[in-house]
Structure formats: structure tokens, C-alpha cells
Design goal:
Helix content: 25-40%
CATH superfamily of the largest domain: DD-peptidase/beta-lactamase superfamily
CATH topology of the largest domain: Beta-lactamase
Shape: globular
Radius of gyration: 26 Å
Structural class: alpha+beta
Number of domains: 2
Number of strands: 19
CATH architecture of the largest domain: 3-Layer(aba) Sandwich
Largest sheet: 9 strands, antiparallel
Distance between the termini: 64 Å
CATH class of the largest domain: Alpha Beta
Length: 463
């Protein structure tokens, strides 16, 4: 276990962590899971990280937050991050046809009216390409070289019309890695190392396959059979599928990538993507018909209860992994396991259920303090469309429509900007969220008019 962050010292969080740790150890022991490392990130703090079981049972080496695991498809998030960096640098556009950067890319399609496959299609899994290159590498463990992957395209065809539905494709993300190479002029692994891993301080993370004998690496195991036995999993090198499935990292390192997702501001240094680009990646770019899930740019986007979660899981022989992030709550959970039946989702869900409420109580939203001078703005206002009332509450000014049966369902909160000027905060997208609310005063200092955006309401004494 790493030294806990300051938040972990809070009694309510400590209690939730103790519960989680006890439950994880029991689940791991009864399922025979060899190793699990888990971490909980809140904003820019690794609140808690721990290892359970043995990373190398033969040596009785304990799992820790610094134990390395093959993270498989979580690699796709690093590929998408690289694509967006290159987009922001002007080296490519998301709606560029793939052929603009990979002239050799040619996959026949039975769908004559399908749009050309673009970079956006690759990283949102809407290209219509087959799930895999034409080799049985998941069955036999022998992955194609990049050269064989290219040659194999001639034997494949698009199985769906472009952007007709979501269809997960390792082939598409492998091709996105080729785009990174072509647009940057650097091999994919070199680009990710120099432009993503190094600035983030992810010094233990590998793009190329690790040495199977590396003592830091958790040994991967197959699923547990009915007789209780569990064999060692074969070691694989993803080779031409590297950009889709090959990276290796630890909880401690991956936490740095999770922290990036909560930052804002212009790109530079450890801020490897500007805040607006991160939010763009987290937004839904393809929505599934049930409206419960979809894809951002590289990220799986899911609606779970009242939370929107973004992240990615990974499966490679001997390893099951998951990074799940709630941008609104600035909460992320990482679970890395060393077995084909590791089921990291089980541990991530419990961490969100138990730590999320505890963190919310320990880190309440920033409280606004009302200024008594703002009382001058309170009162009734009217125009031809509506009547409203401005109230001074404990945390600031509030605009309500008193004609509604429940005016507190969608009030407008006013955030101070400058003298007599506020910014509207609304949950209703039809309202004036983000616009200026300006009070005009008469000679006696009384508010006589309230401008909301380009329109206004005049003060009235009675309804």
C-alpha cells in the first residue's frame, strides 16, 4: 500500500477504505485471484492505492500499487490522446479520410454509398471495419507484424457501412496508431513515450512489450478451472496491434493519466492536452440506441445511475484491467488484475459506490458567500414575457419564476463577475446559462432594471 493522500485521513473516507479493503481481500481470496492492484484518484490526489495477493506466487512477491500489469485495451486511450495532440498541433483533422495519412489503406466495401473511413471513425469504433486483422492471434497468441497487418487488409472488407452503428475494432485502433506514426514522423511507441508518458511522469509505463522476467511485472494466469487449478497464461507481444492493446503500467503511473482528465487550461508541460480537448474526448460522439452508453474520442461513455462515466477496460491473456472516471465528481478508480477471470468491474463498482459518497461528504462543493450589498438587487421584475423575483439567499442571488408550481425546480443562480454584473448559472439549457445579468441602478442606488443577455426586465413594486 502507498502512503495515503490527505483525504484518506478523513474519518468517513478511512471507514469506507477499510470496508473496501476488507471486502477486496475476501473476494480475492475466495476466487483465487492471484493479484489485484487498485487505486482511487480524486482530482489531483491519489487518495489510496493498494495491492492484494501475490504478483509472482512462485517468489511470494506481494502485489503493490507499483506492480506492473499489461493493460491491454486501455492502450487505446493513449492512442486517442496522441491523435488529439496531433489534431491540436495541426498535423491532422479528425474528419480526414484515413487514406490522406495512410495511402496504402484500402479495404473493399459492399456498401457503395458508405462515407469514406475517417480518423474519427477509427477512434469512435464507427468505421465498419472488422473487429480484428485477418489472423487468429487471440486464439493462437501469435500477433502479426505491422507489415503483415497491412498486407492482410487486401483479404478483408468493411463488414458494416461506415457510421451506421457502433462496432468495436482492434483493427481500427491499430490503424489509428499507424496514423500517429505517419502524422508525427515518429514510430508510434516513440511518440507516445515522448509526448504522453514523459510529460506526465509515467516513468514505469511501457509501450513495447515488457521483459517477461521483469520482477516488477505481475505474472498472468488463465481462468480458474472447476477443479480449482489455474495455469500460467502465455506471454504475448501485440506487435502490429500495439496501438490497440500492448501497453504495460502500474496503478501509481496510471493515476497520473487519470489526474490529467480533471485538469483544465492550455496545453503545456504535464498538461499534455488543453482542457477543452479533454472535455471533447469525454463527450458522446456516438450514442447507442438505448441512450445509456456510447463512445467519446477513444473513451467509452456510460450512464450509470445519475453519473456519467468515461474510461476503458482491457483484456489480454493473463490480465483484466479497468480505468473508470467520473469527470463531474473528479473521481477515478483503477483496478488491475492478473488473471483471465479477474473481473475488475466488480472492484471498480464497489469503490465508486462506497468511496464516492464518502468523498462527496468530505469535499463539499465550494460554498459561495453572499454579499449583503447585493440586497439592493432583490425584488420583483417584469417584462411582456414573464415576471421574476430576485432573492438573496445564504449562498448568493437567485432568480425564480414565482408563477411556477415549484420555482425551485429550475432557478437561475447569479455568480458575481464585477460591479452590478453577474453570470447566470442554469440547469435548463433553454435558459440564459453563462450570459451576463446586469443591474441598472437609479440615482438613489435602487435597482430599476435587470438586463439578462440582450433583453431586460423592469423593477416593479407589486404584482
Amino acid at each position: 500500500m502507498t502512503a495515503p493522500g490527505p483525504l484518506a485521513a478523513r474519518p468517513e473516507i478511512r471507514a469506507a477504505l477499510d470496508l473496501l479493503a476488507a471486502w477486496i481481500e475476501s473476494q480475492r481470496a475466495y476466487s483465487g485471484l492471484p493479484a489485484l492492484s487498485i487505486g482511487i484518484v480524486h482530482d489531483q490526489e491519489l487518495v489510496w492505492a493498494a495491492g492484494f495477493g501475490e504478483a509472482d506466487p512462485a517468489r511470494h512477491a506481494p502485489a503493490t500499487p507499483d506492480t506492473l500489469y499489461r493493460i491491454a485495451s486501455i492502450t487505446k486511450l493513449f492512442t486517442a490522446t496522441s491523435i488529439l495532440q496531433l489534431r491540436d498541433a495541426g498535423a491532422l483533422q479528425l474528419d480526414d479520410p484515413v487514406t490522406r495519412h495512410l495511402p496504402w489503406f484500402a479495404v473493399p466495401s459492399r456498401h457503395a454509398d458508405a462515407p469514406p473511413i475517417t480518423i474519427r471513425h477509427l477512434i469512435t469504433h464507427t468505421s465498419g471495419l472488422p473487429r480484428e486483422a485477418p489472423f487468429p492471434y487471440w486464439t493462437e497468441g501469435e500477433f502479426p507484424t505491422p507489415e503483415r497487418l497491412r498486407e492482410g487488409l487486401a483479404r478483408q472488407e468493411a463488414v458494416l457501412p461506415t457510421e451506421s452503428r457502433w462496432k468495436y475494432s482492434n483493427l481500427a485502433l491499430a490503424l489509428a496508431g499507424e496514423v500517429v506514426t505517419a502524422a508525427s514522423g515518429k514510430p508510434y511507441a516513440d511518440y507516445v513515450a515522448s509526448h504522453v508518458l514523459q510529460p506526465l511522469g509515467m516513468t514505469s509505463t511501457l509501450v513495447a512489450s515488457p521483459d517477461p522476467a521483469d520482477p516488477r511485472l505481475a505474472r498472468g494466469f488463465a481462468r480458474r478451472l472447476p477443479n480449482g487449478s489455474r495455469a500460467a497464461a502465455p506471454f504475448t507481444d501485440s506487435r502490429g496491434i500495439t496501438a490497440a492493446a500492448n501497453m504495460t503500467t502500474s496503478v501509481s503511473d496510471l493515476a497520473r493519466f487519470a489526474m490529467l482528465q480533471f485538469r483544465d487550461g492550455p496545453a503545456g508541460g504535464a498538461q499534455i492536452l488543453r482542457g477543452s480537448t479533454l472535455r471533447e474526448m469525454h463527450r458522446v460522439h456516438w450514442l447507442e440506441p438505448d441512450w445509456q452508453a456510447g463512445w467519446g474520442l477513444g473513451f467509452r461513455v456510460m450512464r450509470v445511475g445519475k453519473q456519467t462515466l468515461v474510461g476503458h477496460g482491457g483484456s489480454l491473456r493473463g490480465y483484466r484491467t479497468l480505468l473508470q472516471i467520473c469527470p463531474e465528481d473528479k473521481l477515478a478508480v483503477i483496478a488491475l488484475t492478473s488473471a483471465d477471470d479477474g473481473n475488475p468491474t466488480l472492484f471498480v463498482e464497489r469503490a465508486f459506490a462506497w468511496l464516492g459518497p464518502a468523498l462527496a461528504r468530505a469535499v463539499p462543493p465550494e460554498r459561495r458567500v453572499a454579499d449583503s450589498e447585493w440586497r439592493r438587487y432583490t425584488g420583483r421584475y417584469r417584462n411582456g414575457w414573464r415576471d421574476v423575483q430576485v432573492l438573496l439567499m445564504d449562498d448568493g442571488l437567485l432568480i425564480i419564476d414565482p408563477t411556477l408550481p415549484d420555482p425551485m425546480l429550475a432557478p437561475t443562480r447569479l455568480v458575481f463577475a464585477s460591479e452590478h454584473t453577474f453570470r447566470a448559472e442554469d440547469t435548463d439549457g433553454y435558459a440564459s446559462h453563462g450570459e451576463a445579468v446586469v443591474f441598472e441602478l437609479d440615482a438613489a442606488g435602487r435597482a430599476r432594471r435587470m438586463r439578462v443577455g440582450e433583453n431586460y426586465l423592469d423593477a416593479v413594486d407589486t404584482w
